[in-house]
Design brief:
By secondary structure, the chain is mainly alpha-helical. Helix content is 40%, strand content 10%. It is globular and about 45 Å long. The structure holds zinc ion (2 copies). One zinc ion binds at residues 84, 86-87, 89, 96-97, 99-100.
């Protein structure tokens, strides 16, 4: 059943279903951006987050969102880029480390909202943290 929702990326209202968190234009752009990242990683395996961001002109926080969504993963064990939402330990993908309970509800709002509202220093911190970790495409069907 269709319902009116607020797009998590641009904030516009749209008619969607429970699965869709973004309006159709944003969703389409998001899929295209992800495709570009995937293609880039095909040619440059284990590229750094920062390098992907600057080469493709895709914001660092957007790449971070793909990591949170489990579509990409970080190869480094020790990095400051992607941390467990609960205990702050470095993780390769998703929201929580192995020790923190998985049944906690995913709080999509925190990273979608944070993406747009970040202060300058936090955005800079994020870019700084993005310089080291390398990422790879996380295949869903493995
Ligand atoms: Zn939108
Ligand atoms: Zn944790």
């Amino acid at each position: 059943m269709a319902e009116i929702k607020t797009c998590k990326l641009c904030g516009k209202l749209f008619e969607g279903n429970q699965l869709l968190e973004t309006c159709p234009p944003c969703h389409e752009k998001d899929e295209k951006d992800f495709d570009r990242i995937r293609q880039y990683l095909d040619i440059h395996p284990a590229a750094k987050v920062f390098e992907v961001s600057t080469s493709l002109n895709i914001p660092v926080f957007q790449i971070k969102r793909y990591l949170r969504e489990g579509r990409l993963e970080i190869l480094e064990k020790n990095q400051r880029f992607l941390l467990c939402e609960r205990c702050g330990k470095p993780i390769s993908s998703g929201y929580y480390c192995d020790e923190c309970p998985k049944e906690l509800p995913h709080n999509y709002k925190s990273y979608y909202a944070g993406a747009g509202l970040k202060g300058k220093s936090r955005a800079k911190d994020l870019e700084e943290a993005a310089k080291k970790p390398r990422i790879r495409y996380l295949s869903k069907d493995r």
